[in-house]
Amino acid sequence: MDAGTRDQGSGARGAVPGGRRLAWQLLRLGHASHKGAEAGRTRFGALLLASAVLALTFCSFVLASAAWDGREARGAARTPALAERGEQAKALWSRYWDSYGGRQFTVVVIAPLTDDAPLPPGVGHWPAPGEVLLSPALAEAPRAEDLAHRYGKVAGRIDGAGLASPGERLAYVRPTADLLRTADLERITGYGGHWIPFGDLRVVGERTAMWALLAVLLGLPALALVVAAARTGAAGRDRRDALLDALGAGRGARLCVDLGGAALPVALGTLLAGAALVPALLYDVRLPWIGYTLAAADARAGTAALSAAMGLAALTALGLVLLLRPAPTRRSGARSNRPTSAQAGPLRLLALGAFPVFVLLAMFSGPLLGGAQRSAVAYLFAVAGVWATLPWVLGWGAGRWSRKAAGSARHQGNPALLIAVRTMAARPAAVVRLVAVLVVAVGVLGQAQILSSLLSVMPGHERTPGTAAESAALVQSTHAGELPPAFRSSLPRTARVVALGQEGEGPETVRVMQAPCRDLALLDLPCPPRGKQRQVALGDLERRVRGAGPGPAGEPVLVRSGPVQPLTRGEGLRALVFAPGGSRLDLPAVKRAAHLHLSAKAAVQGLRESTEQPSELSHQSRWIPFLGALGAAVLLLAMAVAATAQFLRLARTLAPLNVLTGDRRVFHRTAVWAVGAPLCAAGTVGVGVHLVLVQPVTGGAYGGEVSWPLLAAMSAGTVLTALIATLVGGAVAAGRAASWVPRPD
To answer: What is the pLDDT of residue 121?
Structure first.
């Protein structure tokens, strides 16, 4: 600390913080001492960046809530109001699922009954019979999907007022009079009713699940970055606090000084985050890779909440700066600015006490909360708590171990180990800062993998091989007779059709297949005489036929020759359309033929879609690696900040040894114990804790799977990180030592 700073500090002797003038002077003192302090510029930039990231993270919660609110409001406005008894219906309405590109979407069938029939929100005019209105996402679909002709002639687009989100896939179809008679439609009076929602609202989960993902995958990395930035150059500030304490400055005065050093970068970082959010308030923003479009109208509706979130983020960053400071030990009867071992600060004590509670909650949240949605949120909350408090536990353990290891190092005559363990014992918080980012990185990557694994579980289905799955499709419609010639002529030239059904009830139910002999032969099925049937064991059927739908396991299948027609009494036509020889089937052409010539609500599903996981769930799970990648990027920034701070501290601490030893190798050996060993230990403990935390959600039919290659990669990455940090830390310390000269502190 320079002379001017000491003079200002001495003016605080015995002063009790009170009054605006004194507070302003203390804030200016903090700002001035911060500018000239060790690593002052590095800390300024780190705090600015960390505050911006934390503000954006807090705002992501607000934007997620705003998106949910807007989606629910628009979804409620377009929900049909069913006509009650005695009430005149204005229109007919129904819906069904279709898909393209591995994702499902809703197709709404509508038809007016009166001249004053109300239009759905987002629809400017009634399409003519045989016409369709598409959302922008469907209208811009690849031409190979043939959505421009799949349901009829395209007559326009649905605007944003009728879409849950700008990127929603939705179609309004008005069928021809002939097709209208093939579908069972609801009679409605208008919109804004309380019926079951449709579209994206049927597949989007609870907002609390998104909050939990944001907290674990973005919140933890953002907090790790703030912690790393707050303690950059901590040694110099700790000495300044000790001096102020010796001069008689109270706790409030020291807090004001710390606040003065952090207020400007935190404020600038928060403003930077606000500037980054301006485009989202003006335009619809499409998130890269994930493909979700955030509506600008939703973001503008949350402007007040966004402002509050940025203010809360700034207060949180400043609060962490004030909490992450030591509580210096005052010697009885004397005052000294000589640094001593710091006592446990309030945040450290809180972390040490909360760690076992979080572990127990993570392990037993399912039994305690009934295994429902609350259990999942509680589990993620507990996991986040474990990873947030684990660095303090490691620092506490390193401090206790180092006190015992110091004696062994002294007896062995190992100066490098002795210096490292003495430093750990005096400043265990330095270990926390060093390992925190690595521990959180292990937690974020591990949880992202296990959550993706949980969402990809689909028990009870036999997967059909890729080539076979792409060569067949299931068709379900209300058509009651034989296949119409128009449907057959609209199919791909080589496509063949086999009718599917079942006979009997309960345990006596058996599957039935029927088609002309030439089509049965293409599936390696026998062709019994007309009026006869042949039993075929389920295991002897071609894989495409086995994957064509659930059936009694082990029971024979009855094969008949005859026309393709409904086989199950009281149900419509269920058929398998396939391409001979396992060649690829033109699925869009099959869908177009079914929608235009079978029934208004014909369901066509590729065999791959019917045997794999629910496609929309798979798409929603992409949020996990997307947020995990953002969190990993934040962690890289935090690791760079923490490593820079540690290298500077190590270099300053070891520089005088050059005069005492004359051996530059001692710097590299000390770096092994002071930097490399804690990182390796933290990575090993982090992987072990991850294995413990995933036990409640792994195993069983619906459990996730641990990725052992990922664990091996994280372990190897830990060793590599420790090696690089050791080499760089030793080199920086050796270089600083070569130019070190004594100077007043």
So the answer is: 95
Burial of 407: CB neighbours in 10 Å, binned 0-12, 13-18, 19+: exposed
Which residues in 509-583 belong to E strands, given as ranges? 510-515, 534-536, 557-561, 573-578
Among residues of the chain, what percentage have pLDDT more than 70?
76
Q: Which of 279-283, 515-519, 706-710 has the lowest mean pLDDT?
A: 706-710
The confidence score (pLDDT) of residue 498 equals 92
pLDDT digits (tens, 9 = 90+) for 667-699: 778 888 888 888 888 889 989 999 998 888 887
Q: What are phi and psi of 670, to 5 degrees?
A: -65, -40
Contact 262/47 with Cβ under 8 angstroms?
A: yes
One-letter identity of residue 602: A
Q: How far apart are the first and last CA of the chain?
A: 6
Hey, is 312 helix, strand or coil?
helix
Q: 575-610 burial, b for 16+ CB within 10 Å, e for fewer?
A: bbbbbeebeebbbbbbbbbbbbbbbbbbbbbbbbbb
739 three-class SS? coil
**Domain map of the chain by residue range?**
1-75+206-329+338-343, 80-195, 345-458+613-745, 466-612
Q: Compute the residue count for the chain.
A: 745
pTM for this entry: 0.74
**For residue 433, which of 226, 262, 242 has the smallest C-alpha distance?**
226
Determine the residue type at 34: H
Question: In whole angstroms, what is the distance from residue 567 CA to residue 500 CA?
Answer: 7
Q: Give the separation between CA 521 and CA 546, rounded to whole angstroms.
A: 16
Contact yes or no for 625/452 (Cβ under 8 A): yes
